[in-house]
Amino acid sequence: MSAKPFSSVWTRERKGPRDQGLSRDQIVRAAMELLNEEGLDALSMRKLGARLGAGATSLYWHVANKDELLELVMDEVYDEVVIPEGTSWHDAATAFAYGMHTAVSAHPWCVTLIGVLPGLGPKALTAADRLMAAFSDAGFDGPDVDYAVAAVVSYTLGATIPEVAYLNALARAGTDVTGAQAVMEPIIHEVAADYPHLIDRYRTYAGTSIDPLTARRLAFDFGLVALLDGLAARLPREARLDHPVRD
């Protein structure tokens, strides 16, 4: 059985503008609005066309199918990850991590698309290129550049996607983190009765006045700082002297 040939909106020759009708930018903006309002399951070419007051045929002039549309929309998510050109590796990694965390949190529908749709759009590639260039300029060499970038990307998405998925599930259930904790507290005490250390840790956090979402942000900060400290230690000594990490 032959493999299905790879196709992408970014590898297909783009048609010229029509004399009249919708532009691709209009279609992408409307798709983003629909996704933000109603989620991924609500998106269809027919529904998007109705939203724009146009038939599906007008949309297919610009995109061959829904997957191509999602590629375009996902590149707009990466547009919100701003990494200044020529910045230090530490600042570039920090900008990527917080930018990606914020973008995914603002567009929770994208959690099931990351890692599934290839990031081949110009905005995704710009973010990747600037992050890689910053590590290379700092003194990371050879495959260490790729490993360092992968570590930052993996930490960011690994910490962000489960959090956003959890908040999505709570929203669908009509509750929030505080409400879920109130429901779970007696259950945790019951099922973890034989694990006193876990119960003690749970009581410690339950007894604080820190907002649960703030606690999650602090945990993200801690993990990112620890990762960056570890990456700094991987630099050659002379590079660490030339590129000190700022507190």
From TrEMBL:
Q: Is the Transmembrane helix keyword given for this protein?
A: no
Record's keyword annotation contains DNA-binding: yes
Source organism, top-level taxon: Bacteria
Binding region for DNA: 44-63
| A GO BP entry | negative regulation of DNA-templated transcription
Q: Where is the composition biased (Basic and acidic residues)?
A: 11-22
Task: Spell out the molecular function terms from Gene Ontology.
Answer: DNA-binding transcription factor activity; transcription cis-regulatory region binding
Q: Which UniProt keywords apply?
A: DNA-binding, Repressor, Transcription, Transcription regulation
Region (Disordered), start-end ranges: 1-22
User: Signal peptide position in this chain?
Assistant: none
The HTH tetR-type domain is annotated at: 21-81
Q: What is this protein called?
A: TetR family transcriptional regulator
| Organism per entry | Planotetraspora phitsanulokensis
